[in-house]
Amino acid sequence: MLSRRALIASGVVGAAALPALAERFADLALPGGPSARPLGPIFPQKGEMIVQRVHPPLLETPFDVFDTGVITPNDRFFVRWAGGVMPTSIEAKAHRLTLRGAVKQPVALTLDEVARAGETVEVTAVNQCAGNGRGLQEPRVGGAQWAHGAMGNARWRGVRLRDVLDKARVSSNAKRVRFAGLDTPMIEGAPQFIKSLPIDVARRDDVIVAWGMNGDMLPLLNGYPLRLIVPGWFATYWVKMLSDIEILDTDVDDSYFMAKTYRMPATPVAPGDKDFPTVPISYMPPRSWITSHAQGARVARDRPIELRGIAMGGDAGVARVEVLAGGKAIPATLGRDEGTLGFRRWTLSLPPIARELVIGARCTNANGVTQPDVQAWNPSGYARNVVERITLVPA
């Protein structure tokens, strides 16, 4: 983390570009553009965060938080609103979750009725923005220039979505389930943020309507009073401030945020390619990071290097993590599994080094999918999962 004075002195950013609201800044080391981000202002229910945008809030988790444990604290959990205006207060007693569409009995449930819809369950899972790491892509693309902090892992508490759906007696011809929250478009006439899931995904055991996060209520910025939890899928489907569920009797969802955006090329493309077919982003690929050491970290020449990191399997559990160093793939030791689709701690002791060493962590998930050595480019910077490398420097 850099001070205002250090940033100006280093030439990373000019004095005129620094907001008056913050005295400390993070340098995200983004290859394609300005890297300095303020560590303030402090938002309600949040600690110090990397402020990518104030309105609507885009708050990135400082990367050192991920070295403290596999569960991301609520007050350091990233915040992403997709361009809409979110309420700044909600009256819990007045909140209703409506279910409509291809149902036999439309209903409007109170929070108490949602809680009584089925068994209370807890699911540990990673919530990750599809653009996490976008700011590291080359050549640069538009969108929020995240480093690695647009993600977090939490214990989510609620009821299974399928139990909530059953309150409306969903029709047998249901194909998709569409979700909307309380946020509204910033510009009149702009599309509302709504997303949908196939009915078979919506009825999975681990897809829940949550009101709890890490033993507390959901923070307002993370979706209070209700949030959809879809383990293994990108955060765009984890609709916050959930207020409306529509059952569709078609496989096609032509709403804007399904049909026009949050989509990836169906086949590999290169910068400058146009008019290629796309598919909606959906499940996450495996990823892993070194958390104990930063890029350029200095290490003692005469002592082993104790590495720590985290890994996620995406839409499957973590099968193994290897550290790539000096042309070798060295197996790391996995920590306790605290949730199949959550973060997994890994550790490894490397022998002392006499010269600079480039290392990276590589995860393989339970489906046999391994992180690639080279990132496939796409025009939205989605689904980054390349092996992330750092250089260690002997002191």
Can you walk through the features of this model?
It is a single chain. With 395 residues, this protein is mainly beta. The chain is built from five helices and 29 strands. The protein has helices at residues 4-10, 111-115, 161-166, 199-202, 256-259; strands at residues 2-3, 24-27, 36-38, 50-53, 58-60, 79-80, 84-85, 97-101, 107-109, 120-128, 151-160, 176-181, 184-185, 194-198, 208-213, 216-217, 227-229, 242-248, 263-265, 278-280, 287-290, 298-299, 305-312, 318-325, 328-331, 333-334, 344-350, 357-365, 388-394. Strands 9-8-18-12-14 form a five-stranded mixed β-sheet. Strands 10, 11, 15, 16 and 17 form a five-stranded antiparallel β-sheet that branches. A five-stranded mixed β-sheet has the order 22-29-28-24-25, with no helix packed on it. The longest helix is centred in the N-terminal third of the chain and has 7 residues, at 4-10. It is globular. It starts with a strand and ends with a strand. Mean pLDDT is 94; it is low at 1-20.
**Roughly how much helix do the residues carry, as a percent range?**
under 10%
Derived from helix and strand composition plus strand pairing, the structural class reads: mainly beta
**Average pLDDT score:** 94
Biggest sheet character: 5 strands, mixed
Q: State the separation between the terminal residues, measured CA to CA.
A: 21 Å
Total helical elements? 5
Query: In angstroms, what is the radius of gyration?
Result: 22 Å
Strand content: 25-35%
What strand line-up does the widest sheet have? Answer: 9-8-18-12-14
| Number of distinct beta strands | 29
The low-pLDDT segments are: 1-20
What is the overall shape? globular
